[in-house]
Amino acid sequence: MHIETPNKKIPKGDKEVFDFLTDLKNFEKLMPENIDKFELINEDRFLFSLKGMPEIVLERKGQTPNSQIILGAASEKLPFTLTADIVKLSEIETEVALHFNGEFNAMMGMMIKKPITNFMGTLSENLEKI
How far, in Å, CA of 81 to CA of 65, rounded? Predict the structure, then answer.
């Protein structure tokens, strides 16, 4: 399953956006209002849950300075990645696109597609908080 958000323009430089996203505690600011729990486990992992959903642990899988951050599920039960692609438009403007990639059976895919799409949309909209 692949879900991506429209590109979001942010009135900040690419380094500032990258630095914000690589500090994983900042993801709490990007979460939807219905967040039930957020816990920074260490500098490379955080746990979160939304009301009515199970807890998910995300960990840093990779990063390329000022251009990309890849987070992935820490559990093999739900293998997926969440990637932020950062593109410098100017010294004071950056564009970010979020991509979700996961391997799920058809039934699971049908159940989670809408909640994941909504979650990704909220993360993208909340990028304005950087």
Answer: 18
Show the domains of the chain with their CATH numbers.
2-129 (3.30.530.20)
Residues 6+ apart with CB under 8 A from 69: 18, 21, 22, 60, 62, 63, 83, 84, 86
Which phi and psi (to 5°) does residue 6 adopt?
Answer: -65, 155
Per-residue pLDDT tens digits for 81-92: 999 999 999 999
What does pTM read for this prediction? 0.92
Token pair recorded at residue 1: 């399953």
Taking CA atoms, 32 is separated from 3, 27, 36, 130, in Å, by 17, 10, 10, 15
